[in-house]
Design goal:
There is one protein chain. The chain has one domain (2-77). It is 51% helix and 10% strand. The protein is built from 4 helices and 3 strands. Strands 1-2-3 form a 3-stranded antiparallel beta sheet, with helices on one face. Strand 2 and strand 3 form a beta hairpin. The longest helix is centred in the middle third of the chain and has 19 residues, at 49-67.
């Protein structure tokens, strides 16, 4: 079960089916450190191992994405990130 949770934040890319601006907004919300750190804080405060586990899995996902070059998205499209462009580049 926990292994599948690792990939849940990537479901946010489905928002790109609407348009690039909304897709970037939803993707960035799911891939920002703010929400999982808040969840982690609540997990410590409530002494909830499940909440802590979910927060840590979410943080690990974000960290791996950053390590692979998948940064926060710009509204220009999925391939435009704060870490640079990703994906195949078309030759002009």
């Amino acid at each position: 079960m926990f292994a599948l949770l690792f990939f849940v934040p990537d479901l946010s890319f489905l928002a790109y089916l609407s348009d690039a601006k909304f897709g970037a907004l939803v993707y960035n919300a799911a891939h920002s450190y703010m929400a999982p750190v808040t969840l982690l804080t609540f997990g410590f405060g409530l002494a909830s191992p499940l909440t802590l586990s979910i927060a840590l899995i979410w943080l690990a996902h974000i960290g791996l994405d950053r390590a692979l070059g998948y940064g926060l998205k710009y509204s220009a499209g999925f391939g435009f990130t704060h870490l640079g462009r990703i994906g195949r580049q078309k030759n002009h």
